[in-house]
Amino acid sequence: MPSKLLFIFILFFTACVKSPKTNSKKSETSGEVAPGNPNTVPTISPTLPPVGNSIDPLFSQAWHLINTGQSTFSQNGGTAGQDMNWSQVVQTGAGVLVAVSDNGVEKEHEDLASNFNVGFSKNYASNSSGWYGDPVPDDSSHGTAVSGIIAASGKNGFGSRGVASQAIIAGFKYVGEAVNVSMQVDQANGNYDVFNYSYGGYSCYFDRDSSTYLTQLEYGAKNLRGGKGAIYVKAAGNEYYSYNSDCDPTLSEEDDTYYLGNANLEQVHSYPWMIVVGAVNANGVSASYSTPGSSLWISAPGGEYGVNYPAILTTDLTGCDRGYSKSTSTRNDFDKGLNSLNSNCNYTSAMNGTSAATPMISGVAALLLQANPNLSWRDIKYILAKTARKIDVTRTNLSHPGGLNLSGYTYDRGWVTNAAGYSFHNWYGFGMVNIASAISLATSYNYPLSTFKETAGASSSNLNLTIPDNSNTGAISSISTPTNLSVEAVQIKINLTHPFVGDLGIELTSPSGTTSTLMNINSGISISNINNEVLLSNAFYGESSSGLWRLKVVDGQGQDVGTLNNWSIKIWGH
Predict the structure, then answer these.
(1) Neighbouring C-beta atoms of residue 17, cutoff 10 Å
(2) Stronger pLDDT, 189 or 251, i.e. the higher one
């Protein structure tokens, strides 16, 4: 990183602890395969587990479900009422099949076994036909913890309870394996209702995906579940701040620097097929690690680190010799197996990250599909947006975390209410998920969304506009779109030349006058130039697409001068 950013980043971040990675960096090789046939999975009917009447001994610590200010074995409690409004819900997600594509799941776990379906599970380390098989986890309990958040059995006398305590889990052993594009496509295909992706790439550069995988996601959203569409739920990332060595392992410790993450830089987030999820802590504020961005859709509890403030309590690998909870843990007595409620280390109080927030939304999707099986993937998104709870309401426009603001320019906006009446925030999407309200709407839903359409991309000419250096004036260009849709998502594709893209901010203003920040100035990402990269914003949901859309590119630091070459805009809606 150029020296102009180094000092202030060190000044601001030396007191910070790096967020542990619960999102794994993708490992894949190239290869082209067609979108899969949704009828290739076994036609196994999930067996519904019985609902018991026993008390779940750790349920009282599930602040994400019912927040009473409990500490969940950390040093401090949260704020009572800052939860998902789950307490009055009678749905359990019964019969809804959720694929947990992760690093495997312990199918025999006492609080998961009755909800686990090995016939639908896959192990991408195996050579079996279609990769079907037991997704035996390694020593990491990530996938097991994610599964417990979704569907730990309720009222069975063990552990806590999942958001959807009768949903069926199919585990995929995928993350950490030497996967190719065929495998990547496969883990987005099949007779599953919801796909949970608590993993991701890094946002210190534009992290592209295979075009075949992107095609599969579109195919799945439009064709799976009998044409109603698969529900793809994806973690935004744990990179509110992080290290450039994430993307450049050659950096020495003394040369390593921080960057500020942006969910938009992971390409798969910049399409409407994904529900991208941010994380909130037990006080109802964006978790310290949660990656922001205009591609977020919704937020859910992810907690902090479980030391000073609560993380999420969930299932862990059985035994005190592996997983998050083990005899060598220094976090607390509970995770060390010294608490009578966890003497076998079968549970952990340490799960956090957008990896934890994502299965909250997968569980909610299961509840909604039980309440109304006819909901499409677009209906699910609409209901989540319509019923989301606005949190952290007193926070105004945001300043640069490291103080690198630009005079006369807003680094990022707080809550913005668009012309259609939807409030949006780059930290939260449409807000905190509100389960009771969402189920109420789902139950009475009358399908207001008409045919899904996509505009032909409108493009600028070759602009070659100079981006004024260290100036709030910016390079400005407008494109007119004649098609009148009710917006569901807006994507731009941009080309610009600049030796240090980390200086730049990009914002888009709709014909209705709503402005969304797609990239923040002075992010510290160490890349040069932007070549045909896509960025998405959900902030214009419900507005009219027709009229003049204005793009502005701002350079927030001196020294390097760049050029906006051209851009285009694509809109999905009805």
Answers:
(1) 10
(2) 189
Q: Based on the residue annotation, tell me whether 64 is a catalytic residue of this protein.
A: no
The phi-psi region of residue 284 (left if phi > 0; otherwise alpha if psi is between -120 and 50; otherwise beta) is left
Which one from 142, 269, 400, 498 is the annotated catalytic residue?
142
Residue pair 508/490 in contact by the 8 Å Cβ criterion: yes
Amino acid identity at 134: D
Name the amino acid, one letter, at 574. Answer: H
Say whether 466 sits in a helix, a strand or coil: strand
pLDDT tens-digit series, residues 451-503: 999 998 899 999 999 999 999 999 999 999 999 999 999 999 999 999 999 99
For residues 101, 102, 104, 106, the Cα torsion angle rounded to the nearest 10 degrees is: -90
403, 270 Cβ separation under 8 angstroms: no
pTM exceeding the 0.85 threshold for the entire prediction: yes
**Catalytic: 102?**
yes
pLDDT, one tens digit per residue, over 138-171 is 889 999 999 999 999 999 999 999 999 999 999 9
203, 210, 242, 355: the catalytic one is: 355
Q: Which fold has domain 453-573?
A: Jelly Rolls (2.60.120)
Ordered by start, the domain boundaries in the chain are: 32-237+264-313+351-387, 453-573
* Poorest-pLDDT segment among 15-29, 249-263, 504-518: 15-29
Supply 449's token pair: 């969304």
The type of residue at 411 is: Y
> Catalytic: which of 102, 111, 246, 560?
102
Q: How far apart are CA 364 and CA 386, in angstroms?
A: 14
Which residues fall within 8 angstroms of residue 312, CB to CB, at 6 or more apart? 64, 72, 145, 149, 301, 302, 303, 349, 351, 352, 356
For residue 337, count other CB atoms closer than 10 A to its CB: 20
What is the CATH number that goes with domain 32-237+264-313+351-387? 3.40.50.200
| pLDDT of 20 strictly over 70 | no
Select from 383, 367, 347 the least CA-distant residue to 164.
Answer: 367
Q: Any residues with CB less than 8 A from the CB of 414 and at least 6 apart, and which?
A: 395, 396, 397, 398, 425
Q: Which two tokens stand for residue 501?
A: 């893209």
- Catalytic status, residue 355: yes
Which of 564, 203, 538 lies closest to 388 in space, CA to CA? 538
In 3D, which of 235, 287, 300, 244 has the Cα closest to residue 266? 235
Other CB atoms within 10 A of residue 525 CB: 24
Sign of the torsion angle spanned by Cα atoms 93, 99, 100, 106? positive
